[in-house]
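RECORD TYPE: protein structure
NAME: ABC transporter substrate-binding protein
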Amino acid sequence: MRAQTLHRRILVAGATILSLLITAACGQGADSDGSGSGNSYRITVISDISGAFSSVSAPGASSIEMAVNNINATGGVNGKKIDLQVIDSQSSGSLALTAAQKAIAANPLALVMFSGSAGAASITSLAQSARVPLLSPALSDTSLYPAQPYLFQTSLTAKQDAEALYRFVEQRENGSVSGKTVDVAAINSPYVDVIIKQARTLLERAGARVAGIQRYDVPLASFATQAGAIARDNPNVVLTLGSTDDTVVVSKSLTAAGVTALQLGIPSGAAQATLQQIASPKYFALAANPYATTLPEFLAVADKYHKTADVSSSMFAMSGWVTGYVLAKSLEKCGTGCTSAALNTALEQVSDFTVPDGASYGPVRLSATNHVAAGTVRFHNYDPATGRFSESDPITVP
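PREDICTED:
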């Protein structure tokens, strides 16, 4: 009897220990998964930290890290921390897809991606099929118009860029572009293809003539021949639609060829350093965010987390800050037991949200029919004669 009693006690003790181990394991999973039932909210960032697109993408990753650190340091969201994990996709679409597959297997609440448009395109279907919200400044317009579940743009779309370019030309030409000549100097890119198509439609509908479109690939060593062709058109406006370094080459080549037209760039050509290198009072570039150097509170946070050098020289750093705070606001609405599906709905309820520290020109107005966070732009300019930067009046591009 004693032996049987001892055996029963051993079985009960073993079952109890096993139960405790299972509970502990489940608890650990709940803390680290994306269900929102543990002690943190898991968000995974996939970004081109290295490779060809790192100069554009890495500042966004640094800025969302900074935002999350700041959010966590001030109490987190709903009493919980945001667990941010960053994966380097190395400027490769295939590696981005592999990273997204690995991230989704770990059950995050949301994915964030800072990359070229090809990188974002490689994971959009995966995120949608997994029902995990994907926030990125590089989504294609076809995935946003109309708004699709789980896909959210945290910067301007190509359609918005085109609308802003058209409206600024209209303003500069005293309200009418009729009879004006426009040329285009543009990188070969699907995103830029949409800008060109949309801007051309708007301009020609208003009576302007798009005389020539000069395309190029990067890296760009010279644009002299194409600049000469543009000069022969004697345009009133040249749309310079490229990335940071090549835009400098294009603009300088246009000036050297004797082009005196207004030159208009997109956000990838709007950084202060880019405008200073171009050194032309004729060059303006649009952005949805002010310069970090004009935001002392933002810079104070950057300094606190040793991110100043990473975020102060790039316009794209602001996308990370905006994304971090939009996510925090949506998590607040979603609650402590948030799921990725519920987060999609919560994101659609972030309306009239002002991003902290003045990091956006206009409020974020997301809804079930609008998954684009940016809606107001300004054009930036640098005058080498005075050494001063200036910006235009705001332009709304819903």
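COMMENT: Residues 1-32 form one domain.
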